[in-house]
Design brief:
Keywords: Metal-binding, Zinc, Zinc-finger. The chain has 22 helices and seven strands. It is an alpha+beta fold and about 500 residues long. The protein folds into three domains: about 140 residues, no CATH class; about 50 residues, no CATH class; about 180 residues, no CATH class. The N terminus is likely disordered. The structure holds zinc ion.
Length: about 500
């Protein structure tokens, strides 16, 4: 398999996901991303001889409800579900395995370094004061400060819902949501879940207080933290006392950060979009910056002396073998993995990758050029000379053209599969179709901006370029027709 001589600084490194893990490679090992199973699980796993505990029916039911139903549905259920059961449901709502913590941490930073640091912090007793209140987990992580023996302290707050981490905040103020401290707290909660103090959501506890107890609660709270709380407390008091028509008086109930999700909310993992976009930009900049040289190897000199057909074949073969830029291929594989798991971020991740690729003028240029040369519809005009476009490119550019086209075709293929999902409603499908049409325009605009080497696209080349037409056609598939033919009720 192909060696990558000039490494991209990103999600490239495949096998590293297995052990040392990054989708952004800085090694030149000949490896491919191949899944998220850890070679060695966290050491707290029970030994083979240790008997596994059999859960009671109540625990099994709580677990099932926790994974499948929004907490609002549970709260509003009649007859009311006992408080202790609601607490068990909150307990089982936290993710059970560290695999997804690792995946999302990797997605945010491009490597699993943060996860590994978090694992060490959790194992070495640096996680303290862990408290789960309803669907909110808080904790303190200590870490040696750089260049001193003193320890820094970080406060972390995490919310979760139906086995998904839905938000992470840390006082380290790092831009990434998935810092090592958030990782450490999650790993601690997963591996030592029975040591974590568990309380009902705050709204539920407050509901149990009498009127005078409520007043006491408010006054004690303000007197214990006057500096932090007093200004906000006074503002809320002013709003409550101002008039009956003020917003706070008009809305029934009050927000509860420790309460679970509302009935119509989808459970979705927190995706650190800003970091991810930044990383994709870097991969593309690097890929495009080094495009004609990246895939040079010892055969390149030889390729210049072989017949053109043989050279074309070799180039095409190598683009399929190489999967360059590897980091983006890894991200596409992660997207596939998320689709297979039914993760709602799968399409979102694919969307981010697509939008960033469309902004890469050079890649779009190569994609358009590739289609036009491989379909034998050569109408390129190189300074007035009709000439097959690829013939005017040096062999290394031809490799880049194949690599860009191969990647974009995979993205288009994934969108075809996405839009064919029988679970998509009509509105979402319509929005996706509009998106594909906009993207078709964008590809052409970007491709025109990226055109060089004396090649310009004429109107026929643009008309024949398929772009996102495949997904547009796939969006026309109406599963209801199949259901009718097969006699399956639509609800199934
Ligand atoms: Zn942090």
């Amino acid at each position: 398999m192909m060696q990558v001589d000039a490494p991209y600084s990103s999600f490239d490194d495949s096998e590293q996901f297995e052990d040392s893990s990054s989708w952004i490679s800085d090694s030149d090992q000949d490896v491919k991303w191949s899944g998220w199973k850890r070679a060695s699980p966290i050491s707290t796993d029970p030994s083979p001889t240790e008997e596994k505990e059999v859960l009671s029916l109540i625990e099994i039911c709580s677990k099932c409800v926790a994974k499948n139903h929004a907490f609002e549905t549970v709260e509003l259920y009649t007859p009311p579900i006992p408080d202790n059961l609601q607490l068990r449901i909150a307990y089982h709502s936290f993710p059970e395995s560290e695999e997804e913590i690792r995946l999302y941490s990797c997605l945010a930073s491009g490597s699993n370094d943060k996860f590994k640091q978090g694992e060490i912090l959790a194992k070495t007793g640096n996680v303290h004061d862990v408290l789960q209140i309803g669907f909110h987990l808080s904790g303190v992580v200590t870490q040696p400060a750089p260049h001193t023996t003193a320890k820094q302290t970080f406060n972390i707050a995490i919310t979760f819902d139906r086995g998904h981490i839905t938000s992470c905040q840390c006082s380290c103020q790092e831009t990434a949501a998935w810092c090592e401290h958030a990782n450490a707290l999650c790993i601690y909660r997963i591996t030592r879940k029975d040591e974590v103090a568990l309380r009902s959501p705050v709204s539920e506890s407050l509901g149990r207080l009498e009127r005078d107890q409520l007043q006491k609660f408010a006054q004690y709270l303000i007197s214990e933290l006057p500096q932090q709380i007093l200004p906000t407390a006074q503002r809320l008091l002013d709003e409550l006392l101002s008039s009956k028509t003020s917003q706070i008086n008009m809305i029934a109930g009050a927000p509860d950060p420790t309460g679970g999700a509302s009935a119509f909310e989808d459970a979705k993992w927190v995706l650190d979009e800003a970091s991810l976009q930044e990383n994709i930009k870097k991969i593309l900049a690097r890929f495009c910056g080094t495009l004609p040289y990246v895939m040079m190897d010892s055969n390149a000199a030889f390729l210049n002396s072989v017949p053109p057909v043989s050279q074309e074949w070799s180039n095409l073969l190598r683009s399929f073998q190489g999967n360059d830029p590897e980091a983006l291929w890894n991200l596409l594989n992660i997207s596939r993995h998320l689709y297979a798991k039914g993760d709602r971020n799968a399409a979102h991740l694919l969307h981010l990758i697509t939008e960033e690729c469309l902004l890469s003028y050079q890649m779009m240029f190569y994609w358009m050029l590739s289609y036009n040369s491989t379909s034998n519809q050569h109408a390129a005009i190189g300074r007035g000379r009709p000439e097959p476009p690829h013939m005017s490119l040096p062999s290394t550019h031809v490799l880049s053209r194949h690599a860009s086209a191969h990647l974009m075709e995979e993205i288009v293929h994934l969108w075809e599969l996405t839009v064919m999902s029988p679970y998509l409603d009509k509105d979402t499908k319509l929005q996706m179709k509009l998106k594909f049409e906009i993207w078709n325009q964008q590809v052409i605009e970007s491709g025109r901006k990226g055109q060089g080497q004396g090649i310009a696209f004429n109107s026929r080349m643009i008309k024949d370029f398929p772009g996102f037409n495949g997904p547009l056609e796939a969006a026309e598939i109406d599963w209801d027709v199949f259901y009718q033919v097969l006699g399956i009720p639509q609800s199934e």
